[in-house]
Amino acid sequence: MTNTKKETRTVNIDIRKDLFGANENAAALNAETFKKHGIVAIDIMGSVGTGKTQLIETLCDHLRDKYRILMLAGDLATTIDADRVASHGVDTVQINTGTACHLDARMVRVALQNVNLADYQVIFIENVGNLICPAGYSLGVDRKLVVVSITEGPYMIRKHPLTIKHADMVIINKIDLVEALEFDIDALEADIREVDAAIPVLRVSSKTGEGIDQLIKVLNL
Ligand SMILES: Nc1nc2c(ncn2[C@@H]2O[C@H](COP(=O)(O)OP(=O)(O)OP(=O)(O)O)[C@@H](O)[C@H]2O)c(=O)[nH]1
Ligand SMILES: [Mg+2]
Fold this sequence. Notes:
Elements: H1 15-36, E1 40-45, H2 52-63, E2 69-75, H3 80-86, E3 91-96, H4 105-111, E4 122-126, E5 143-149, H5 156-159, H6 162-165, E6 169-173, H7 178-181, H8 185-195, E7 201-203, H9 212-218
Parallel strand pairs: 1-4, 1-5, 2-3, 2-4, 5-6, 6-7
The chain binds guanosine-5'-triphosphate (GTP) and magnesium ion.
Magnesium ion is lined by residues 52-53, 81, 126.
């Protein structure tokens, strides 16, 4: 009996590449869907408590008479943020991610499954509060905003530059607290410019509404 030696086949799986590749495919599908319905979709990222929901609430107050708006809220648990925005007369869908510290394109796709997209012109997506994880996951949106706020201390950009690299615009929120906190906003903006010299940076107070008209103008809404 001849003993024929067999070759061992090796398959290398790059899990990260596989994961990100699958997400990019789902993001492309989302982008196509938004385009087909003429929807402007905006992903709002940022650490816990920077004012993402407050910003969406204020934007909705300014825009809800002009556009039909849907808000998708990403959180590990609860419907608190979706409920807050819904109280402004805006339709919402809560996405509870369980343990995931970011939204991905598939979650957005699933969340939109039972939504009649013909009813909407603008979709605000509040990502899970986190300055790191959401950066690598495209959702298929038109714009990616990062909300930083002056209550996080002066070093968050230097410590977490990655999200800025993946964003189209940075919102510095809570500027109504500048004096009380003796915060150096110019230094914070200089840190942002170190990461991306060209990125638009807007200073707003989602609470008082300062800077919101300018933000709406820059967003082309
Ligand atoms: N003074 C002031 N407070 C603000 C402003 N924006 C948000 N806040 C307050 O900051 C706190 C957190 O705001 P949220 O909008 O819940 O923050 P978030 O980023 O959505 O938080 P998570 O969803 O938990 O990540 C709330 O008490 C808001 O009222 C602002 O411009 N000025
Ligand atoms: Mg929130």
